Amino acid sequence: MAATVDTVERVESITADKYKYGFVTDIEMESAPIGLSEDIVRFISAKKEEPQWMLDWRLTAYRHWLTMEEPNWAKIGYEPIDYQQTYFFAAPKQKVAPKSLDEVDPELLRTYEKLGIPLKEQEMLAGVVGVAVDAVFDSVSVATTFRAKLEEAGVIFMPISEAIQKHPDLVKKYMGSVVPTTDNYFAALNCAVFTDGSFVYVPKGVHCPMELSTYFRINAQNTGQFERTLIIADDDAYVSYLEGCTAPMRDENQLHAAVVELVLHENAEIKYSTVQNWYPGDEEGKGGIYNFVTKRAKCAGANSKVSWTQVETGSAVTWKYPSCILQGDNSQGEFYSIAITNNMQQADTGTKMIHIGKNTRSRIISKGISAGKAQNTYRGLVKALPRASNARNFTQCDSLLIGDKCGAHTVPYIEISNSTARIEHEATTSKVSEDQLFYCRQRGIPEEEALALIVNGFCKEVLQELPMEFAVEAQKLVAISLEGSVG
Amino acid sequence: MLKISNLHAAIESVNKPILKGVDLEIGTGEIHAIMGPNGSGKSTLSYVLSGRDGYEVTGGSVDFAGQDLMDMEPEERAAAGLFLAFQYPVEIPGVQTMTFLRTALNEIKKARGEKEIDAVGFLKFVREKCKSLNISDDMMRRAVNVGFSGGEKKRNETLQMAVLEPKLAILDETDSGLDIDALRVVADGVNALRSENRSMLVITHYQRLLDYIVPDKVHVMANGRIVKSGGKELALELEEHGYAQYEAA
Q1: Which of A53, A168, A352, A355 lies most in the core, judged by the most C-beta atoms within 10 Å?
Q2: Cα separation of A399 and A414, whole Å?
Q3: d(CA B93, CA A162)
Q4: What is the pLDDT of residue B168?
Q5: Is A38 an 8 Å CB contact of chain B?
Q6: Which DSSP letter does residue A4 get?
Q7: At residue A2, does pLDDT exceed 80?
Q8: Domain count of the fold of chain B
Q9: Which domain holds residue B72?
């Protein structure tokens, strides 16, 4: 279905401005004091009125983080992050938590409207399928739609800060079970200072009746966003979830260090899609988001299936490897990725497929596009443990270069400890050729539209994995993020 | 329709002159053929007329339906009604031929200030075109030229011409890489598109294409110039005597 999304409509609707999400919302905020310390961790926990166990968990992570060093193995270069010059908590000021949308600050509602994210349910219903949205603004969730409808089906969809209060048993059981507090530098930091994010629980046998999505917005200056998402699909459950991200244009860099954990029980399926469009910085590489994200899914139950689909067009620096732990027998992991870097952007992204159970299967399709002076690296690990009899992996990594000042790199790691495993890796690197551009132009298609057409064709296998509503948006994004890269 | 006057052009990167004073005039609805040996400048002429990068026009002028062609971008020339059927059609992986063609048609319409065509309308329009050219419309669902045989690629060029309805079509070595059966199919397609409002410039190395697409006039090109012009019988004469007499000149 998504494959038939029409290019012409896409080209027509490309707006002239390059980063249309770069505006700032003027709203009264409250922040934690600048910098990071145990007191800040306590401050955040207190702001969220968290139980003691949650604070203890945060402090353990924080103390461990202090002993760790920032990783430097990725092919990215950036100015050192000064954690003492970053705000770790910023929230729109409101006296009482809004109980319904009517109580949400209208300025916030306008912000989401401007971003194309309607929060009013009746407006959403105009579409064929509704999408439930959790809107996270800096450090807090400001609205979650369609909760009542989801509750009827037994699906829990709420800000994680609320889940800590209302469903402590589920949170205690699953949080950190996929990405432990000690996992890596940025994950440990997130564990200590995470502020909000989404929590989803789909009970046994429930097919979630609508798409769930979270829309992350960084607004405040010098503020890091540390969101945490936890999705649990119980036996025979199904959910499709998507997330979108934008931020204002600012000259200084901002840190985004998220953790996403997915847990799948027997026969469960989760489709997780991301359209990441954080502010990428200007043409000289000034400003932009540092995007250091840990995403991991655990296919704990037999026959479970997870798929990660990502369209990464934003951020000055991206460091991200959505992974699948294929523990249950016959479980499947998929990773579909489009990473576009233009101007001075850098991306080091890929996946890890860890085959533990028997007959586990994984599939990796990565499309990297570089333009300007950007550097784009695919880094992926495929690992089969001794018990993973008949594990199967297929990997395809394609890189597309636009111009002659950018770079594309492919770094596959393959570690196989079972002789019955079968691993395939294919990689190609190509350039958008003069011939292709001229052919399009001779048919009447101007250069930038021609490039968008060619690049969308290159990404097709991944674009068609996205939910319909997002596929159109993603195609536009592909075109917009490459503006100015030819001629 | 087309008036080329004393056109000079060179390959930019090596500063090598290829066209050394081409004069040619094609009236509305006329079909002209340019024949000539390899390296005479035939393909360069088609690229210079369509505006490909890498060629520098060093003198002369080209008037196309009252417009200064050399002053226009390639897509503007297309919108003005100039079409080039490529000698080697280019593959665009992942882009459906249907999408490609509809994008092209709508960009042209947009440039002309006409109303664009929607997906349903286009589908109907293109099916009729396929039918009239005897082309199976499953080609429309495949990626542009990807995995096409030589014959299919040339048929696709013909179909594109039918959809874009140009005022002037330049056919660059349309016969290259085709066996005799495929050649006949493509020629039938081209003939079906002959019209009193459409001019064509057929560039070819061999006479045999002109058995199927019969021109009004034939020109011989050698060393970057038109050295002889005549009626369709000139092609037969060339077939018999070869190009040697012109190359020496």
Answers
A1: A355
A2: 19
A3: 47
A4: 97
A5: no
A6: G
A7: no
A8: 1
A9: 2-248
What's the one-letter identity of residue B75?
A: E
Question: What is the layout of strands, in order, in the sheet containing B168-172?
Answer: B82-85, B168-172, B199-204, B31-35, B217-222, B225-230
Both tokens assigned to A423: 């691993």
Q: Are strands B67-68 and B55-64 parallel, antiparallel or unpaired?
A: antiparallel
Asked if B107 lies within 8 A of A449 by C-beta distance, the reply is: yes
Assign A127 a pLDDT band (cuts: 50, 70, 90).
Answer: very low
The answer to whether A145 touches A153, Cβ cutoff 8 Å, is no
pLDDT in tens, B139-189: 899 999 999 999 999 999 999 999 999 999 999 998 888 888 888 888 998
Q: What is the pLDDT of residue A101?
A: 66
Residue type, A382: V
- The answer on pLDDT for A422 being more than 80 is yes
Q: Which residues are registered as beta bridge partners of A228?
A: A259
Coil, helix or strand at residue B135: coil
Indicate the residue of A12, A447, A457 with minimum beta-carbon distance to B95: A457
Helix H or strand E encompassing A173: helix A168-174
Terminus-to-terminus CA distance in chain A, angstroms? 34
Closest C-alpha among A212, A188, A192, A191 to residue A202: A212
Burial, B114: exposed, middle or buried (Cβ in 10 Å; 0-12, 13-18, 19+)? exposed
Can you tell me the mean pLDDT for A332-337? 97
CB contact under 8 A, B84 and A442: yes
User: Could you tell me if A270 and A262 are in contact, meaning their C-beta atoms sit under 8 angstroms apart?
Assistant: yes
CATH code (residue B176): 3.40.50.300
Residue type (1 letter), A69? E
Answer yes or no: do B83 and A442 touch at CB < 8 A.
yes
pTM (2 decimals)? Answer: 0.85
CA distance A142 to A412: 40
CB distance A347 to A321 below 8 Å: no
Q: Pick the range with the lowest mean pLDDT from A20-29, A116-125, B113-122.
A: A116-125
Angle subtended at Cα A40 by Cα A37 and Cα A44, rounded to the nearest 5 degrees: 150
Best A441, A449, A461, A465 residue to mutate vs chain B (most B CBs within 10 Å) = A441
Chain B residues inside the 8 Å CB shell of A446:
73, 75, 107
For every residue of B172-239, which 3-state class applies, written as one string? ECCCCCCCHHHHHHHHHHHHHCCECCEEEEEEECCCHHHHHCCCCEEEEEECCEEEEEECCHHHHHHH
Which run of H or of E encompasses A288? strand A288-299
Q: Which residues of A106-131 are buried (b: 16+ CB within 10 A; e: fewer)?
A: eebbebbeebebbbebeebeeeeebb
Residue B206 — left, alpha, or beta (φ > 0 → left; ψ -120 to 50 → alpha)?
Answer: beta
